[in-house]
Amino acid sequence: MIDIEDQLTLDERSSVDFILALRKRWSDTVYPALAEEYAATGPLAGTVDGATDRMRELSLYPWYSHLERVQQKMLWKTVGEAVVNRGDSLREQLDEVPGAPKGRLVLDPGLELPGWYTDYDIHIQPGSFYSDDLSGYVYELGARIVMLRDNDGYKFHRLFTETALPETPGATRIVDIGCGFGKSTRPLVGRYPGAEVIGIDLAAPGLRLAHAEAEAEGAAITYLQADGRATGLEDGSCDVVTGTMVLHEMPTEAVREIVAEAARLLKPGGTMSFLEFQTTGDPFRDATIYEHAERNNEPFFRHLFATDLTGVCAEAGLSDAHWTPFDERREGKRPDGWGDRREWHFPWAVLTAAKPEK
Ligand SMILES: C[S@@+](CC[C@H](N)C(=O)[O-])C[C@H]1O[C@@H](n2cnc3c(N)ncnc32)[C@H](O)[C@@H]1O
């Protein structure tokens, strides 16, 4: 597989490195300075709205908020150009079908994409995930930088797979909903040897890239273009239904439908586990998380945070639903919370629930 980063010109490399450094300094220097100014200049607000109002009056806020938005736009411009500059060879790579594929790619060109999915360029990525064959490559390269290079080699997704998904000897089918370009799906193959691993997504470009990468690695994965709310798979056929970073991208009613679909797909005793986000309980930090989402065109974070997801699981017939914080740097699932972190970070958390045996 072509790794675009191996081919970057000096100019492109400099841009990528600059944006990465800018994001790191925004997170580990500008955000803590904003937090210090907030703490030093008045009473700490007791609510997110109160903290938002106070934050917007701080002298550092214009810088902080401007850098947050601008770095994201610079990111897509840089990675978008890097991908388009190699568009012909990248498209060819997607078209190359291996002689004896180990997995499958099942696309559905007639699949209707929901309005809430097409109304926004999510993450401000021009054209979002679905509009062009190259969108998967753009998202893949952009995500390396958004994760501050901490997810190179899919370290972060492997941590999720290893610390948050159950040991299930003899598992026969595992489903990853909202699999994107397969970053969350590939670690499942090693975790559940012998099981059929299925990645599902609305967007064909990511699935095409996921399939090409899985074949290049020799991983037997089925990628299906479908809506995670109605996968078309059989009732009670899955040991684990999982997903990473997908539920916050849809309105509450759609989240309910995904959870109901997961409950339908699970075998008795099976596990549902989604890596998502939760509020931290610190009004100032949470105010910055709401703002981060809105500045990145992610309008449904608010819906996720306002929804009682453990209650949604119970409505769907799942038991023992609970959230556990997740530390993406080294420990993975971390029941004690995120710890004291100075830098801005996503409040990762895992939602787990079980399908009762009877
Ligand atoms: C932020 S990406 C995460 C991708 C991948 N799980 C990862 O961790 O890299 C969210 C993905 O969910 C997909 N998605 C959103 N809503 C969906 C739905 N209702 N059914 C299937 N996929 C969906 C999007 O197309 C996108 O690829």
From TrEMBL:
A Gene Ontology BP annotation from the UniProt entry: methylation
Listed GO MF terms: methyltransferase activity
Keywords: Methyltransferase, Transferase
InterPro entries reported for this sequence: Methyltransf_25, Methyltransf_Superfamily, SAM-dependent_MTases_sf
Cited SUPFAM superfamilies: S-adenosyl-L-methionine-dependent methyltransferases
Domain Methyltransferase: 174-270
Record's protein name: SAM-dependent methyltransferase
Organism phylogeny: Bacteria, Bacillati, Actinomycetota, Actinomycetes, Kitasatosporales
